[in-house]
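User: I'm putting together notes for a lab meeting next week and I want to include a structural view of one of the chains we've been expressing. I don't have a solved structure, so I'd like a prediction I can at least talk through. The sequence is below, exactly as it appears in our construct file.
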Amino acid sequence: MRKTKAGCLVVLLLAVAACCTAPLLVAASGRSDGQEQVDAAAAGIPARMLAAYLTGASQVTAYVPGCRGMRWQVLAGIARVESDHAAGRQIAANGDITPPITGPRLDGSGAGGNTTAIPDTDGGAWDGDAAYERAVGPFQFLPETFRAFGKDGNGDGTISPHNADDAATAAAVYLCGNGRDLTDRDQLRAAIHTYNRSWAYVDDVVSGIDRYDALGSTSGVPTGNAGVVIQAALAQQGLPYSWGGGGPDGPSTGICCSPGGQDGRTVTGFDCSGLTQYAYAKAGINLPRTAAEQAGSGQRIPASAGISALQPGDLIFYGYSPTADSTIHHVGIYLGDGQMINAPRPGKPVRIDPVNAMPDYAGGTRLL
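Assistant: Thanks for the context. Below is the predicted structure for the 368-residue chain, given as C-alpha cells.
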C-alpha cells in the first residue's frame, strides 16, 4: 500500500513561471573544480536537444549495464550528421519534434542516394509511407530498427522516434550494443559504423564528437554525485506535475488537492519536492518530503549571497520570507548559468526554467 504523501503543499503563488528562453549552459567536468560551462549556443545545438542528449546518455546503463563511455557528445555527433540537431523544427518541452523528420523514400530508385528497396514495416505510422520505409526522427532510425531499440526517454508512456528524449535514448542503447567501451577509440568507431556502414560517415561523426569533447570532457554535467543528481532530474523532463506525487522511487500519483484544484490522485508524475527526492536518491541521499524540510538539509546558502553563490546540483528554494525556511513553497535543482530544473506547478511538466522565473528566491542548500 502506498503511503500518504505531503508534497509542496504550501499555497502556491499565482505568478506564472516563464519558459526558458535563454541559452542553456550545462555544467561540465573539463575543469578541475567541475564548474566549466558548456554553452548550447556555442556548441551549435538547440538547448532542448542538448538536454535530450544528456537524458539519453544518463539512462543507457539501465538498458545496457556493461556500456562505458556513453556521453552527450557521442549522441550529438550522430544527430549533427543525421538531422543537424532537428534543424528547422520546433521542439516542445516534452521533447516532441514538429513537423516530423522523415528521410527519402527507400524504394531503390536512387533518389536521395538509396539503391536498395526496403518495404514498409510500420504501416506508415512513423514515416507516413505505407509502401516503403523512410528514416525517421532526429537520429534517422528505420522504423523497424526503432521498434527494436526505442525507449521511453521522457517517461510519458509513449515511445516515438519523433521525440528527442526517446530517440536519443534509443540511439545510446543501439550504439552501446552488448556493452561497448566507447572510451576506446576503436570501439567508438565500430559502434558508429554499425549505425551507417560507411567509414566516411564514421569520420564525419567522429570529427563532430571531437569538437564537442573540446567543449567539455566525457560528460555534460559535473562528475560525481552532482552529475548523478542532475542527469536523474533531466531525464524526467516532460513528466506532468502531480500534487504530492513522486518520491525516491520515481513518479507516482499524488494526493488531493492543490490550491488550483488539481487532484494529484489522477496524475502520475512529480511535484517539486518529489522530483528533488528522486534525483538525490539516485546519489544515495535521502531528502525529507517537503520543500521546507529539505531547506534544513546540508549547508544552507542564504538568499543574500545571491545566485552566483550556487553550484550545479544545489537545491534552490522559494519562500514568502527568504529568511524563514517554514515559508518555503518551492524547490528546484540548480543547473548553472541561472537555470534550474524543476516541477513548476499543476498543468506544467518537469522542465528547465530560469531561476528568476519565480519570485521569492530564498537561497539554496548544498548537499554534494
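A couple of points you could mention at the meeting. The CA atoms of residues 12 and 301 lie 22 Å apart. The first strand starts at residue 25 and ends at 28.

User: Perfect, that's what I needed.
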